[in-house]
């Protein structure tokens, strides 16, 4: 009876707070200004249970073969258990710090001084892409789903696998890196398996790289000669390398030859800009 009376009194207090103890049908205060309509009064009686911090529990894009981590941040966890479930086959992967799968690539990581529960996947493959759920053992359980996308960056050299060019023309090789979660930190160019030296006595060799969602690297070799023939390889730091075989010819005109030494570009850096750069370098 006492508890019922207490809640009844609190309800009446909330009602008084909303109405101001007035019989005001039009919602106007004594000064004629509309009163605020308090649709919810927090009396401090609600206890918050475990809840997810969405800002720190996001979808992840990872590279094939590079360790992937899905992070789940849970506030006010208390003594509940956090589990990770793979939706593809509704498979319980981990519970707490324990692993419940024979696939030892999956590991649960938790630092007791944080609220983060991490599912670590070693050597991920494209088949590992899909929905993973971080679940808290409340009654009923609550969960937050995240999508893991495992991608393999694609490297291409435009015009390959073979290019033919006249002696004295400019070799213009364009390497394109796509589907990478982040731009490659570096892109190495090699000629016949030796890294190209842009400061060599030969001169006239330069590289121009544009990083972005699609990264392009342009290798320019001016005044091509027979020794410039051979295999050129573009090797991004976070993607597979790609090669092209270049033939520097005298007087022959194969159908696949670059016209005037310039390959038509399909990516952001325009052919006109490259032509200007080549001209300036030749001065």
TrEMBL record:
One Pfam match: V-set
InterPro entries according to UniProt: Ig-like_dom, Ig-like_dom_sf, Ig-like_fold, Ig_sub, Ig_sub2, Ig_V-set, Zig-8
Presence of keyword Electron transport: no
Keyword Transport annotated: no
Highest rank taxon of the organism: Eukaryota
Gene3D superfamilies the record matches: Immunoglobulins (2.60.40.10)
Record-annotated Ig-like domain positions: 50-136, 153-250
Name the record gives this protein: Zwei Ig domain protein zig-8-like isoform X2
Lineage, top ranks: Eukaryota, Metazoa, Ecdysozoa, Arthropoda, Hexapoda
């Amino acid at each position: 009876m006492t508890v019922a009376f207490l809640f009844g009194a609190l309800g009446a207090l909330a009602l008084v707070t909303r109405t101001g103890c007035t019989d005001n049908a039009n919602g106007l205060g004594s000064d004629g200004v509309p009163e605020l309509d308090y649709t919810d009064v927090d009396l401090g009686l609600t206890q918050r249970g475990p809840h997810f911090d969405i800002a720190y529990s996001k979808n992840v894009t990872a590279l094939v073969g590079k360790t992937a981590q899905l992070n789940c941040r849970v506030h006010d966890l208390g003594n509940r258990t956090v589990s990770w479930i793979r939706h593809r086959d509704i498979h319980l992967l981990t519970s707490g710090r324990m692993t419940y799968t024979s696939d030892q690539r999956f590991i649960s990581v938790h630092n007791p001084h944080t609220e983060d529960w991490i599912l670590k996947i070693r050597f991920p493959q494209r088949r590992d892409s899909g929905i993973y759920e971080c679940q808290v053992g409340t009654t009923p359980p609550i969960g937050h789903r995240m999508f893991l996308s495992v991608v393999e960056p694609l490297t291409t050299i435009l015009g390959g696998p073979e290019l033919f060019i006249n002696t004295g023309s400019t070799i213009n090789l364009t390497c394109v890196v796509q589907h990478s979660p982040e731009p490659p930190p570096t892109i190495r160019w090699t000629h016949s398996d030796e890294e190209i030296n842009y400061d060599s006595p030969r001169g006239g060799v330069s590289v121009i790289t544009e990083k972005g969602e699609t990264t392009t690297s342009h290798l320019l070799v001016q005044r091509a000669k027979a020794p410039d023939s051979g295999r050129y390889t573009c090797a991004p730091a976070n993607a597979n390398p790609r090669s092209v075989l270049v033939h520097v010819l005298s007087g022959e005109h194969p159908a696949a030859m670059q016209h005037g030494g310039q390959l038509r570009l399909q990516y952001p850096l325009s052919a006109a800009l490259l032509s200007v750069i080549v001209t300036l370098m030749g001065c």
